[in-house]
Amino acid sequence: MRFSTVFGATVASLVLPSSVFAGGHTFKARHHHEIAKRAAGDIVEKRGGIFDNARLTYYDVGLGACGKSNVPSDFIVALNTPQFGSGYPGPHCFEMITITYNGKSTQAQIMDECPGCPFGGLDLSRGLFDFFASEDLGVLSATWEFVN
Fold first, then answer.
1. Per-residue DSSP letters for 97-129?
2. Where on the tree of life does the source sit, at the highest rank (predicted)?
3. pLDDT tens-digit profile of 60-103?
4. Which residues have CB under 8 Å from 95's CB, separation 6+?
5. Which pTM value belongs to this model?
6. Sign of the alpha-carbon dihedral angle for 123, 128, 133, 135
């Protein structure tokens, strides 16, 4: 009986830490989709393809749906699924857009898809989001348009 108690305790001490650490690897994966689900905004598409009051969030970049890897300092976006389209790569992959928020404008490239973003919404790389505002804000309402 003593052997089974010692054996059971030994097995538990080996298995428990590995199961605790195994769950920690998935926390940041696609964290931006959870941020994007926080609140819905009204998107108004004006003539000329300008999206006003668009919901902008940020995410941790990496290998995107367009098939290229990026780093946080890249000015890239993940486009919402309805606008991203189907196929590989998506029809808007590598297109440039202009984003305007609070009097500041810059261009960014579409490199990923954001399934959790509403129509008109974008997920921005951390570097791009930081260009406009502090990450503490979490969500911005901005204007963007495709560059022709």
1. EEEEETTEEEEEEEEEEETTSPTT-EEEEHHHH
2. Eukaryota
3. 999 999 999 999 999 999 999 999 999 899 999 999 999 999 99
4. 109, 110, 146, 147
5. 0.71
6. positive
The first and second tokens of residue 139, run together, are 């969500």
pLDDT tens readout for residues 14-25: 444 444 444 443
Residue 26 in domain: no
Distances (CA, A) of 48 to 85, 95, 138, 140: 19, 16, 28, 22
Helix (H/G/I), strand (E/B), else coil: 57: strand
SS (H, E, C) 21-38: HHHHHHCCCCHHHHHHCC
Collapsed DSSP state (helix, strand, coil) of residue 143 = strand
Domain that holds residue 137: 31-146
